[in-house]
């Protein structure tokens, strides 16, 4: 029998797990270049917002001589619009979740038969309707109901996009919850309402956060409903305020870019804080137990 002589691994040798391809620096460089190309508009927006002069064409590549004049002007002239957008977005999140959460629970755990498919198909159809069609229909209805230029009117309009999406997302997530868990709550004497609040809602935290986040982003970035359903400057979201701002102050780009930066901060902050919940909420209903 021949003895097996162990080979000595040389110092500094590149030892990798079997089947794992070596990293190539060229791929890393390409990825960095693509990322830099995609983030360049964001950098340029911040750069122009910090310039003391408002000419975007003559802006240097780096803000060495920066100024906060653009931000002070933006806050003083667009601060009210930022607060309006915040109220509309938070109201749309609350209203959408109040409607979509019990609807998704009913579709996921109640025996609705064919009606569940019909309702789900109707929800999907609403997602295909062009926004301008919905906006025109809402304008006629709002004019009769006196909801034009009102905060509840804009909240209700922005919820039209958040509710269907939230129902579809949370129905898939709640459907992945094992039926035995809900049935055990029924055996212990809990009804549908108690099982919903005590069992399903705590387990659906990731889906709730994901649905709320996307609804907030829908409402925060809305321009079509804001343009159609508001006719005065008394109630104006930041998207519409920025649109009118460009027409009024096109010669001075620092306040415009500062307003754009301020309007981007809530969305960026929420995405950073809730990214792990979003990943879990989106993939939670992919595999059914």
Automatic annotation (TrEMBL):
It comes from the Bacteria. Keywords: Cell membrane, Membrane, Transmembrane, Transmembrane helix, Transport. It is found in: Cell membrane. PROSITE patterns: ABC_TM1 (PS50928). The chain crosses the membrane at residues 26-46, 86-108, 115-139, 151-170, 207-233, 253-274. It is a multi-pass membrane protein. Pfam families: BPD_transp_1. Residues 82-274 form the ABC transmembrane type-1 domain. Belongs to the binding-protein-dependent transport system permease family. This is Carbohydrate ABC transporter permease. It comes from Kineococcus endophyticus. The lineage of its organism: Bacteria, Bacillati, Actinomycetota, Actinomycetes, Kineosporiales.
């Amino acid at each position: 029998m021949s003895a097996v002589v162990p080979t000595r691994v040389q110092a500094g040798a590149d030892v990798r797990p079997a089947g794992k391809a070596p990293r190539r620096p060229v791929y890393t460089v390409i990825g960095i270049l693509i990322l830099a190309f995609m983030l360049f508009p964001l950098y340029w927006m911040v750069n122009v917002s910090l310039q003391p002069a408002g000419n975007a064409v003559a802006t240097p590549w780096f803000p060495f001589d920066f100024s906060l004049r653009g931000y002070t002007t933006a806050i003083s002239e667009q601060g009210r619009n930022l607060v309006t957008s915040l109220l509309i977005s938070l109201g749309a999140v609350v209203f959408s979740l109040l409607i979509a959460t019990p609807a998704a629970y009913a579709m996921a755990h109640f025996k609705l038969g064919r009606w569940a498919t019909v309702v789900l198909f109707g929800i999907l159809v609403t997602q295909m309707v062009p926004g301008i069609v919905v906006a025109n229909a809402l304008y006629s209805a709002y004019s009769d109901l006196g909801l034009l230029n009102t905060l509840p009117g804009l909240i209700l309009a922005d919820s039209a996009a958040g509710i269907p999406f939230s129902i579809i997302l949370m129905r898939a997530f709640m459907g992945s919850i094992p039926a035995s868990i809900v049935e055990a709550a029924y055996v212990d004497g809990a009804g549908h309402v108690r099982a919903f609040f005590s069992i399903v809602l705590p387990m659906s935290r990731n889906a709730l956060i994901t649905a709320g986040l996307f609804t907030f982003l829908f409402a925060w970035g809305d321009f079509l409903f804001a343009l159609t359903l508001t006719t005065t400057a008394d109630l104006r979201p930041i998207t519409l305020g920025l649109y009118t701002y460009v027409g009024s102050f096109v010669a001075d780009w620092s306040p415009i870019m500062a307003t754009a930066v301020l309007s981007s901060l809530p969305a960026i902050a929420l995405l950073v804080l809730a990214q792990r919940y979003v990943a879990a909420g989106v993939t939670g209903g992919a595999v059914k137990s």
